[in-house]
Specification:
Elements: H1 2-25, H2 34-37, H3 45-64, H4 68-84, H5 90-106, H6 110-124, H7 133-148, H8 152-164, H9 174-187, H10 191-208, H11 212-229, H12 232-248, H13 254-273, H14 277-294, H15 297-313, H16 317-334, H17 337-353, H18 357-371, H19 394-415, H20 418-441, H21 445-473, H22 477-491, H23 494-506, H24 511-533, H25 540-568, H26 570-577, H27 584-591, E1 597-603, E2 607-614, E3 618-624, H28 629-642, H29 651-659
Helix pairs in contact: 1-3, 1-4, 3-4, 3-5, 4-5, 5-6, 6-7, 7-8, 7-9, 8-9, 9-10, 10-11, 10-25, 11-12, 11-13, 12-13, 13-14, 13-15, 14-15, 15-16, 15-17, 16-17, 17-18, 17-19, 18-19, 19-20, 20-21, 21-22, 23-26, 24-25, 25-26
Length: about 650
C-alpha cells in the first residue's frame, strides 16, 4: 500500500510540474513550449531533477529578457513542487533560492532578495567548501543588497567576508565586491579608501581579461569617481577610455548606448570644472543626442541638470533656468528626492549669482527640506538640529548649509538687519558641528585632508561673520568664536593626531597593542609607497592588483584593531574625538606671562587674520590679501633652506643670517 501511495504522489507531482510549466511558458508564444522540450524520466529522482533544472533555465531566459515577474512565477512554483516531494536535491533547491534572490534584487525588493540569498547560502554552506565560488558570490550578493538598503554596517560585514573567502586566483565576483565597497566608501566620503577599491577593481578586470563592456563600465565608474574627487584630468582620461571601448564594440545593446552617453556626460562635467565651457557644452549635447533613444526619464533630468550648470557658468541665465526647471519637473514626478534637493540648490546658485538673494535663500532651504525628510520647518531662518535627523548625505548637507550661510551673510551686508547676521552666525555654528561629525567618521588621513580643504573656506567666512557680529554688537564672545574657528581649521588633522597619541597613553592602552597599530601603519605606508613607484608596464596590472589587495587587507586589519580599541576603551574614544580647542581665558591665565603675547594667524583666500593675545587683552586684525603673500613666504622658506651655518659659525655670522 505504501509503495502505491508513494508512486501515486510522485506521479501527481510530475503532472503538476508539467501542467505548471506548460501554462507558464505559454505566456511567451514566440518560444518553444516546455512540453515540447522536456525529456523527463517520470518515476525517479533524475527525472524530477531534470524537470526542475529545465524550469530554472527558462527562468534564466526570462531574467535575461527582463521579464522578472515571469521568472519569479516559475521559481516560486518550483518551491511548492519541491516541498511536496518526498525527496529533493540540495544543490537544486539552493540554486532555486539563489535565482529567486536575483529576481527580487532586479525588482529592487532587496529585503526579500536578502531573505532568499541567505536561504541559498545557508543550504550551500552545508555541502560546499567555505571558499567555493557560490559561497563567495552569496556573501557578495547579500552585501550589495544591504548597501542598496543603506544598511552600511551589515553590507561591510558580508562584503568583507566575501573578500576574505576569495580563492587564489580570485573569482570574477570579486570585481562586484570591490566596486560596491568603492561606492560605499565614496558615499561615506572616505575617498582614499574608495580609490583603492576602484583601482584594484580595474586592475583585476584587466588581469581577468573580462568582456569589453565590463571594462568600459568600470572605466566609466572611475571617470565619475574622479569627478566627485575633484581630479578632473583623471576623469577625462577614464571617460575617453570608456568611449573608445564602447565605440569599438560591434554588438552594443541599449545599455551600452546609455553608458556611452553617460561617458559624454562625465566629459561635459570634467571640462566644465576645468572651465573649458565650449567642450563641456559639446559633450553634453552629444550625450543628449545619443540618449534621445535610450535614456530613461531620470537620465534626461540628469543631463538637463548638467546643461543647466554649464549654461549658468556661461552666464546664459534664462537657458540655465529652463534646463533646471525641466530637470526639477522630472525629479518631482519620479519623487527622486536627491535630484530634487540638488536641483533646488542649483536654482539657488543661479539666483544668487544674479543677486536675487531672497529667491536663492528660499531654494537653498527647499534643498534642505528634501534632503532631510524629517525636517519640516518652512521658515527659511530655521535650521535643522543634526541629532534629530537621519542624514543620508553629509557632503550634500555641508553644501546646502554653506549656501544658506553665505546668503545670510550677503543679505546682512546689504540690509544690515540683525536677523540676517544672527542666522549666518548660527548656520556657521551648525556647519562646524557637521564638519566635526564628518571628520570623526573618516579613518584615512587623505580623506581628512580632503575635508580640511572643503572646510577652510567655510571657516574663513565663519571668522568673517564673527568679526562683523562683534562690530555690530561689541560683544567679545564673537572674537573668541573667530579664534575657535581658526584653531579648528588646523585641528582637523594635526590636533586629532596629537590627541590620539595622548589618548592612547592616558586610557592605558597596552604597549603591545600600540606597537601592533604602529606596525600596521608602517606596513600600509610601505605598500602605498610600492604602489607609487611601480612603473613596470609589463607587470603593472598583476603587480598592482596584488599590492592593492594586500593594502586593502592590511587596512581592514587596522580598522578592526582601531574599532576594538575604541569599543574596549571608552575613555580612549572620548579623549580621541574630543576636539575642543583652548579658550582665550585659559591662554591668558595659564600660558601668557606679563609682557608676553601669543600671535596666531589664519590665511584665507581673500583675507589674512591675525589673533593677538596678551595677559590683559585679545585682538583680531583682518587684512585683505592684496599683496604677494605666497611669493613672500616662498622666498622666506628658500632663504632659510639655502642659508645654513657651519658648526664653527661666529656670532657675526648669526647676526648676518638674522639680517637676511
Amino acid at each position: 500500500m505504501k509503495i502505491v501511495t508513494c508512486f501515486f504522489r510522485i506521479l501527481c507531482t510530475f503532472f503538476l510540474l508539467l501542467l505548471s510549466a506548460s501554462l507558464i511558458f505559454s505566456q511567451d508564444t514566440n518560444q518553444v513550449k516546455v512540453s515540447d522540450s522536456l525529456k523527463i524520466e517520470v518515476f525517479n529522482q533524475k527525472g524530477f531533477y531534470n524537470a526542475i533544472s529545465t524550469t530554472i533555465n527558462k527562468a534564466n531566459y526570462f531574467l535575461a529578457e527582463k521579464k522578472v515577474d515571469s521568472a519569479l512565477t516559475i521559481l516560486l512554483n518550483n518551491l511548492n513542487l519541491i516541498s511536496e516531494a518526498n525527496w529533493f536535491n540540495d544543490t537544486l533547491k539552493a540554486l532555486n533560492y539563489h535565482k529567486i534572490g536575483v529576481s527580487y534584487s532586479k525588482k529592487n525588493d532587496y529585503t526579500l532578495a536578502i531573505q532568499y540569498y541567505k536561504k541559498s547560502l545557508n543550504l550551500r554552506s552545508e555541502f560546499l567548501i567555505p571558499n567555493h565560488s557560490d559561497i563567495v558570490r552569496g556573501y557578495n550578493n547579500i552585501g550589495i543588497c544591504f548597501q542598496e538598503l543603506g544598511q552600511i554596517d551589515s553590507a561591510l560585514i558580508f562584503l568583507n567576508t566575501s573578500l576574505n573567502l576569495q580563492p587564489t586566483p580570485p573569482t570574477a565576483f570579486i570585481t562586484d565586491t570591490y566596486s560596491t565597497l568603492g561606492r560605499i566608501y565614496e558615499d561615506l566620503g572616505d575617498y582614499e579608501k574608495a580609490e583603492n577599491y576602484y583601482t584594484a577593481n580595474l586592475s583585476i578586470i584587466r588581469f581577468l581579461k573580462k568582456e569589453n563592456w565590463h571594462l568600459a563600465n568600470k572605466e566609466l565608474e572611475m571617470s565619475l569617481f574622479y569627478i566627485n574627487l575633484g581630479k578632473f584630468e583623471k576623469a577625462l582620461l577614464h571617460g575617453y577610455n570608456a568611449i573608445e571601448i564602447y565605440n569599438l564594440m560591434d554588438d552594443k545593446i541599449d545599455e551600452d548606448f546609455q553608458n556611452l552617453a553617460f561617458s559624454y556626460i562625465n566629459l561635459g562635467i570634467a571640462y566644465r570644472k576645468l572651465n573649458n565651457l565650449n567642450s563641456s557644452l559639446i559633450n553634453f549635447t552629444k550625450a543628449l543626442a545619443i540618449g534621445s533613444r535610450y535614456f530613461s526619464e531620470i537620465d534626461f533630468s540628469d543631463t538637463y541638470t548638467g546643461l543647466g550648470i554649464t549654461m549658468k557658468k556661461m552666464k546664459d541665465f534664462p537657458e540655465a533656468e529652463s534646463y533646471f526647471t525641466k530637470a526639477l519637473s522630472i525629479y518631482l514626478k519620479l519623487n527622486a528626492v536627491d535630484g530634487v534637493a540638488d536641483t533646488y540648490n542649483n536654482l539657488g546658485d543661479l539666483y544668487f549669482e544674479q543677486s536675487l538673494y531672497p529667491k536663492a535663500l528660499k531654494d537653498y532651504h527647499e534643498s534642505l527640506l528634501y534632503l532631510l525628510q524629517t525636517f519640516k520647518e518652512k521658515e527659511v531662518y530655521k535650521n535643522p538640529i543634526l541629532k534629530d535627523h537621519y542624514i543620508p548625505d553629509k557632503q550634500a548637507l555641508l553644501i546646502f548649509l554653506e549656501a544658506k550661510a553665505k546668503t545670510f551673510k550677503v543679505l546682512y551686508e546689504h540690509n544690515h538687519q540683525e536677523k540676517d547676521i544672527l542666522a549666518a552666525y548660527e548656520t556657521y555654528l551648525l556647519l562646524d558641528q557637521l564638519i566635526d561629525n564628518i571628520r570623526i567618521s573618516y579613518l584615512e588621513d587623505a580623506s581628512k585632508s580632503y575635508l580640511a580643504k572643503q572646510a577652510k573656506p567655510i571657516y574663513e567666512k565663519a571668522i568673517s561673520i564673527c568679526l562683523q557680529y562683534h562690530e555690530y554688537s561689541k560683544d567679545k564672545k564673537y572674537l573668541e568664536q573667530a579664534f575657535q574657528y581658526a584653531e579648528k581649521s588646523k585641528a582637523i588633522i594635526l590636533l586629532e593626531q596629537i590627541k590620539e597619541a595622548k589618548a592612547r597613553n592616558f586610557a592605558g592602552i597596552p604597549d603591545s597593542l600600540q606597537q601592533q597599530e604602529r606596525s600596521l601603519k608602517k606596513e600600509i605606508g610601505q605598500i602605498e609607497k610600492d604602489l607609487a613607484i611601480n612603473t613596470n608596464e609589463e607587470s603593472i596590472d598583476s603587480l598592482e592588483g596584488d599590492l592593492r589587495e594586500k593594502l586593502i587587507h592590511k587596512k581592514q586589519t587596522y580598522e578592526a584593531l582601531v574599532k576594538s580599541l575604541e569599543t574596549d576603551n571608552p575613555k580612549y574614544h572620548q579623549l580621541k574625538y574630543d576636539i575642543q580647542t583652548t579658550y582665550i581665558a585659559t591662554i591668558q591665565s595659564s600660558i601668557i606671562q606679563n609682557r608676553q603675547a601669543l600671535v596666531e594667524y589664519f590665511v584665507g583666500e581673500d583675507s589674512l587674520y591675525l589673533f593677538k593675545v596678551t595677559k590683559e587683552d585679545f585682538e583680531v586684525i583682518s587684512k585683505p590679501i592684496d599683496f604677494p603673500l605666497k611669493e613672500w613666504v616662498d622666498s622666506l622658506r628658500q632663504g632659510i633652506y639655502y642659508c645654513r651655518l657651519t658648526p664653527d659659525a661666529t656670532p657675526q655670522d648669526c647676526e648676518k643670517l638674522d639680517q637676511q
